[in-house]
Specification:
lipoprotein, mainly alpha, BamD-like, 241 residues, BamD, palmitate, single chain, Serine Threonine Protein Phosphatase 5, Tetratricopeptide repeat, Outer membrane protein assembly factor BamD
């Protein structure tokens, strides 16, 4: 995240005064400002686009461009990694326009925004696996995409949403696998087994479900449960075919 507003606030400490968005964006007619905002969006100048769209939204909240400005803000906030602002705009837009023709797109953007909250720039740069980090944004994203597929099966975004659900399901399964491994290392054998069985039940067609069998087998061996050991070894053999 670029922390645009934070950077601007810090810059203010170095000078005598600080201009707000209202001061930065010229006070020009809304039609002209809207055209400028669209130009910034097309050019991928997300910071400027956000400034212009926020100015339009605050100066003309009930103007002829109000709905489209909010839709554009949702997209610009997402592209500018201002996810909290984007989600707040989505909630406001949905509350005011529950039957809007672009409701499927808004729901799709909510899913993308929640999904992006699970992303960490440093993790990507250094290729760090953080399967154990809080998956709450992932659960929200999965619910958003699931709702989109169910409510708008013919939407242009439904197919991509379904594909993203597969990725999110794997992410959630890896989190549970990391939890099962944590229990195993803490010698909480029953807790490890229960979590493994939950993975196999909830996410049966994932790599994590197969890998959970190894953790389950180790826990059963520690408990000396011969029948359970034999069943688990058979499942591992079947999944290797």
């Amino acid at each position: 995240m670029r922390y645009r507003h934070l950077a601007a606030a810090l810059s203010c400490a170095l000078i005598f005064g600080c201009s707000s968005t209202e001061d930065v964006v010229p006070d020009i007619p809304p039609a002209e400002l809207y055209v400028e905002a669209q130009k910034s969006l097309r050019e991928g100048n997300w910071v400027t686009a956000v400034d212009q769209l926020e100015a339009l939204d605050s100066r003309y909240p009930f103007g002829p461009y109000s709905e489209q400005v909010q839709l554009d803000l949702i997209y610009a906030y997402y592209k500018n990694d201002e996810l909290a602002l984007g989600l707040a705009t989505i909630e406001r837009f949905t509350r005011l326009n529950p039957t809007h023709s672009k409701s499927d797109w808004v729901l799709y953007m909510r899913g993308l925004s929640h999904m992006a909250q699970d992303r960490n720039f440093l993790h990507d740069v250094f290729n760090i696996d953080r399967s154990d980090r809080d998956p709450e944004p992932v659960k929200k994203a999965f619910a958003d995409f699931k709702r989109l597929v169910q409510r708008y099966p013919d939407s242009a975004y439904a197919e991509d949403a379904a594909l993203r659900m597969v990725s999110l399901k794997n992410r959630l399964a890896r989190y549970d696998l990391a939890t099962a491994d944590f229990y195993l290392r803490r010698e909480a054998w029953i807790a490890a087994i229960n979590r493994c069985q939950e993975i196999q039940k909830t996410y049966p067609n994932t790599v994590a479900a197969k890998e959970s069998l190894d953790i389950q087998l180790k826990a059963y061996k520690e408990l000396g449960l011969e029948d359970a050991i034999a069943r688990t070894e058979k499942l591992i053999e079947i999944n290797q075919l």
